[in-house]
Write a structure and sequence with these properties.
- This protein has ten helices and ten strands.
- By secondary structure, it is of the alpha/beta class.
- It folds into two domains: about 5-120 and about 300-315, Nucleotidyltransferase, domain 5, CATH 3.30.420; about 130-295, Nucleotidyltransferase, domain 5 (2-Layer Sandwich).
- The chain has a five-stranded mixed β-sheet with strand order 3-2-1-4-5, sandwiched between helices. A five-stranded mixed β-sheet has the order 8-7-6-9-10, with helices on both faces.
- The structure holds 5'-O-[(R)-(carboxyoxy)(hydroxy)phosphoryl]adenosine (KG4) and zinc ion (ZN).
- The site of zinc ion (ZN) has 6 residues, from helix 3.
Amino acid sequence: MLTVLAFESSCDDTGVAVIRGTEVLSNVIANQDVHAQYGGVVPEMASRAHMQHIIPTLDAALGKAGVGASDIDLVAYTQGPGLNGSLLVGATFAKTWAWQHQVPSVPVHHMHAHILAHFLSPEPSPQLPFLCLTVSGGHTQIVLVNAPDDLQVLGSTRDDAAGEAFDKLAKLMGLPYPGGPLIDRLAAQGNGQAFRFARPKVDGLDMSFSGLKTSVLQFLTKQMKSDPDFLSTHQVDVAASVQSAILDILMDKLSLAVEQTGIREVAIAGGVSANRGLRAALAAREQEDGWITHIPPMSHCTDNAAMIAMAGLLKFEAGERGSLDMAPDPRLPF
Ligand code: KG4
Ligand code: ZN
């Protein structure tokens, strides 16, 4: 059984993990607080913070896993997509470590890793083929997973990603970045039917969220004109209604994908899969429609390096090999 050391640095979190086979021995994340005051991630500050965090995070991951450098058989790292400077720090560090310790390295696509995290134990792995709704800050896709190295995008967003929609709508509500988890928390106390926002119609399995943003903006502007306290007095209902609209768009398209493919094995992945409303909506389909659903544990939803390790191991087993001159790619195609 191979022991894999992995690095994730695509955005603003520095992650280092160790797995053995499908078992997570450690999964350490150093979050960056510096961005909250700017309302979004500042790329140059993120790269600098990765440089500060990567060695202590590596030491913590090896220590927690109870392994030394000589126990590592393979290094995996995020090649892209993501922020160029952030990726460069992680990829350069990972490849250097692999070269220094004479072990192979394998580059990983960040979104493949979100999906392949479903193969980490102790959760039961999805049966192939399965459908995966991948929802993060940069991506929203419905993916048909035929095999770990055969992933096919059936539909995707035409504008904002679901996480981006959560964050932008949260900003309209005056909430700090990243607003997704805050909307989730507020929505739990509100009524999702209180206000009805537009659900843009798009053909097939593609999605769109920009019309929803306009709809919420127009609604709030109008309400605030007649009642300047509207947002503070209706915060939980606005949050719940915003969340309902986003989840309706996602669940409608996922249902259509199940209908079109006949595949009932359905997973969610990516940062937005931490959303309690989405988790509940998916789980409900087990009873209602006989879906077999896979909901990742919270620690595997948002960015982490255990998912990079799992994806790296599966790709390595499928014959993929990296080389030291492999460059990170901020726009790495799926
Ligand atoms: O996958 P991820 O950690 O990073 C990217 O690869 O983008 O996803 C981050 C996104 C952010 O937009 C964040 O607001 C959203 O996931 N997010 C959530 C929740 N937790 C994270 N959105 C809604 N509800 C949540 N509980
Ligand atoms: Zn991610």
